[in-house]
Design a protein that fits this description.
With about 375 residues, this protein is of the alpha+beta class. It is built from 11 helices and 17 strands. It starts with 8 loop residues before the first strand and ends in a 6-residue tail after the last helix.
Length: about 375
C-alpha cells in the first residue's frame, strides 16, 4: 500500500513586539485548536516582546485570555528559532545553549498571526519574501498601507472611495507647532477621535469632545506611535464590518468573496469600541451577525468592501470596517489585513454566519497561501 502523502508543514507565528502581543497570542490559541492535525504538520513559533523567535508550546490553553490574564511569549518559552532567508532553503533551525544547531525541518507555509507593528505592517512579510517562503495574507505593500490609518485613507481616497475627514500629525509636529496642529484639527469639528497611526485593537485611542482634551489625547496616541491621526466623528453612524477572502484560484489569484456584513453595537456607558470592550468585557458590545440591513444596503456594503480590498492590493483576507451614516452614506474606515482571529472575533463570526466555520476558514487561508506564487506577483 502506498504511503499517504506528507502533510504540509505550517509554522504558526504569533506574539511579537507590538502592544497587541497578547491579542496575537489569543488568536494563536484559536488557530492551534482549530487546525486539522491530520491535514497539517503544525509548528508553533512565538515571538517575544523583544523580538526573539522561540519554539512555542503547542497548547491552545496556554495562549488564551483567561480571567483577564493576558498571555505573553516569554524568552524562556523554548529554544530560539532561526528562519530561512535563503531562497534555496526552507528549514527552520533551532538553537539551544551549548549545542550544535539542529534542523527542525522545512516549512511549506507560514500563518503570520502577529497584529500591529513589526508583524502585521509588512515587516514579517518582507522577511518571508526574502526566503521565498509562502505565507497567508497580504504582501509587503498592502500590509504596510493597511496598518497605517493615514495612508489607508490616502490610498482609498485616491481610488475614489468614500472616507471620512481626517488630519495626520507627523512625528514631532505637535511639539513643533501645537497651535498650527490645533487649528487643523478644529477644522474637523468636535468631537474627534485621536489615534496612533499604526496601532490596532483600539490601543491609544481617545474620543475628544473639545479643545481642552486634545493635547492629552495626542500625547496618549504618541505613546504608541510618533505619528498620530485625528478623525472627525461621524455622528449617528452605524459600524459595519465585512470579511473578505480570496478564493483558491489558479496560481493563487482567486477573486475576492465577501461575508455577510456584521454590526458593532457599543453599549451605553462606552464612548467607542475600545480595547476592554473588545477583549475583556463580553457585555460591553453586541456583535450582530448578520447586520440588520436591507438587500440594497448589503450589496453596497459588500461591493465597497471588495473595492477597498482591491484598492490596497490586499491578498488572502481582510476585514473592512465601514460607517453607515444616518442619511445612508457609506464611508470606509479601515482595512485590517490581519484582523482579530479568536473564535469570538468579528471576522470568524462573519464567516461562520456565511457558512464557513472556524476550522474551515483557517484551512482555506492556508490552501490559498499554498496556491499563491512566491516572488513578484
Amino acid at each position: 500500500m502506498d504511503a499517504p502523502p506528507p502533510r504540509p508543514r505550517v509554522a504558526v507565528v504569533f506574539g511579537g513586539r507590538s502592544g497587541e502581543h497578547a491579542i496575537s497570542c489569543a488568536t494563536a490559541a484559536g488557530v492551534l485548536g482549530a487546525l486539522d492535525r491530520e491535514a497539517w504538520d503544525v509548528v508553533p513559533v512565538g515571538v517575544t516582546p523583544s523580538g526573539r523567535w522561540v519554539l512555542a508550546a503547542d497548547d491552545p490553553d496556554r495562549w488564551r485570555i483567561t480571567d483577564g490574564r493576558l498571555p505573553e511569549v516569554g524568552s524562556d518559552e523554548g529554544p530560539q528559532v532561526l528562519v530561512p532567508t535563503d531562497t534555496d532553503a526552507r528549514d527552520l533551525l533551532v538553537l539551544e545553549p551549548g549545542q550544535v544547531p539542529r534542523v527542525l525541518g522545512a516549512v511549506d507555509v507560514v500563518l503570520p498571526l502577529l497584529h500591529g507593528p513589526y508583524g502585521e505592517d509588512g515587516t514579517l512579510q518582507g522577511l518571508l519574501e526574502l526566503g521565498d517562503v509562502r505565507y497567508a495574507g497580504s504582501g509587503v505593500l498592502a500590509s504596510a498601507v493597511g496598518m497605517d490609518k493615514h495612508f489607508t485613507k490616502t490610498v482609498l481616497a485616491g481610488a475614489g472611495l468614500p472616507v471620512g475627514r481626517w488630519v495626520a500629525l507627523t512625528a514631532g509636529a505637535w511639539d513643533a507647532d501645537p497651535e498650527g496642529c490645533r487649528a487643523r484639527v478644529e477644522e474637523l469639528g468636535w468631537p474627534v477621535f485621536v489615534k496612533p497611526a499604526r496601532a490596532g485593537s483600539s490601543l491609544g485611542i481617545t474620543k475628544v469632545d473639545g479643545p481642552q482634551g486634545l493635547a492629552a489625547a495626542v500625547a496618549e496616541a504618541a505613546r504608541h506611535d510618533p505619528r498620530v491621526v485625528v478623525e472627525a466623528a461621524v455622528s449617528g453612524a452605524r459600524e459595519i464590518e465585512v470579511g473578505v477572502l480570496q478564493q483558491v484560484g489558479a496560481a493563487g489569484r482567486g477573486t475576492p468573496m465577501t461575508s455577510v456584513p456584521g454590526e458593532v453595537v457599543v453599549g451605553a456607558g462606552r464612548a467607542f469600541y475600545d480595547f476592554e470592550a473588545k477583549y475583556l468585557d463580553a457585555d460591553a458590545v453586541q456583535l450582530l451577525c448578520p447586520a440588520p440591513l436591507d438587500d440594497e444596503q448589503v450589496a453596497r456594503v459588500q461591493a465597497l468592501a471588495v473595492a477597498a480590498f482591491e484598492a490596497l492590493g490586499a491578498e488572502g483576507l481582510a476585514r473592512v470596517d465601514l460607517f453607515l451614516t444616518a442619511d445612508g452614506e457609506l464611508l470606509v474606515n479601515e482595512v485590517n489585513t490581519m484582523p482579530g482571529f479568536t473564535q469570538a472575533s468579528m471576522f470568524p463570526r462573519l464567516w461562520a454566519a456565511s457558512g464557513l466555520d472556524y476550522p474551515a476558514l483557517v484551512d482555506h487561508l492556508l490552501r490559498q497561501a499554498l496556491a499563491r506564487p512566491v516572488g513578484l506577483r
